[in-house]
């Protein structure tokens, strides 16, 4: 989750963890269609997790919202819960202004949960920036989307293990990462990953092959034309990056491995720009916060 400059119990970079008070934060957002406009008509929060105001850079039909987490990162015992509800025919794009951080913690895991419900003919785009797990971090991460019949969604999940730019490997710690998509009550995508610091899983070809960043991007519904379009952008090998695109039961899933999480995100953004007109019916309009 993202950040503003604010006092925080999080551990500054390069310093050892110390006993701190844990943050418990929740945010619930509800979007509904009102004529030609999508309105953010419900928001409730506890703790340091909130939004400021909605934006409409592509007109009143699509509501853009930036989720803010002022502490800037998570330490052991912190808990963030984001709940999104998109009503019938409403269209919401939800993103974050910066990469989320999970700081080192002696043992107690931090927890981040995103739950979304999308009504009939509604559309949700959940496009957060990457989550960075520092060495010695312990975390449980979960993203779960429920789509009604006829609903549409585009969402990605990007995780970086360690800080390659600072030459910090993920030598100790653990991250459990769950990503799930249900359509009309039926599971379409269920990924449950467990990464343990310093294990062969991070280095061997059957695992991450020494790459620190991984991502999953899914779009529903999609067609074979969407699959070919996605492959034209993100399929294959680019330097040390590995990418793929598959179509299963009308759900397009793109995956990426790279040394740099920002490169994974940029490749997903290019894929989103390519797919959005045909899968979601609109030309891609990037949130302005991505350019800052």
Structure in a nutshell:
10% of the residues lie in helices and 43% in strands. It is mainly beta.
Explain the overall architecture.
With 292 residues, this protein is mainly beta. The protein has two helices and 17 strands. It has helices at residues 224-234, 261-279, and strands at residues 24-34, 37-46, 63-66, 79-86, 91-95, 100-102, 110-118, 123-127, 131-133, 138-147, 152-161, 174-183, 186-196, 213-220, 236-238, 241-248, 251-258. Strands 3, 5, 6, 8, 9, 11, 14, 15, 16 and 17 form a ten-stranded mixed beta sheet that branches. α1 (224-234) runs antiparallel to α2 (261-279).
Largest sheet: 10 strands, mixed
Quaternary structure of the protein: single chain
Are there runs of 5+ residues with pLDDT below 50, and where? 2-19
SSE topology string: EEEEEEEEEEEEEEHEEEH
- What percent of residues are in strands? 35-45%
What is the SS-derived class? Answer: mainly beta
Terminal CA distance reads 16 Å
Secondary structure: number of strands? 17
Instruction: Give the averaged pLDDT, no decimals.
Output: 91
The number of helical segments is: 2
Backbone CA Rg: 18 Å
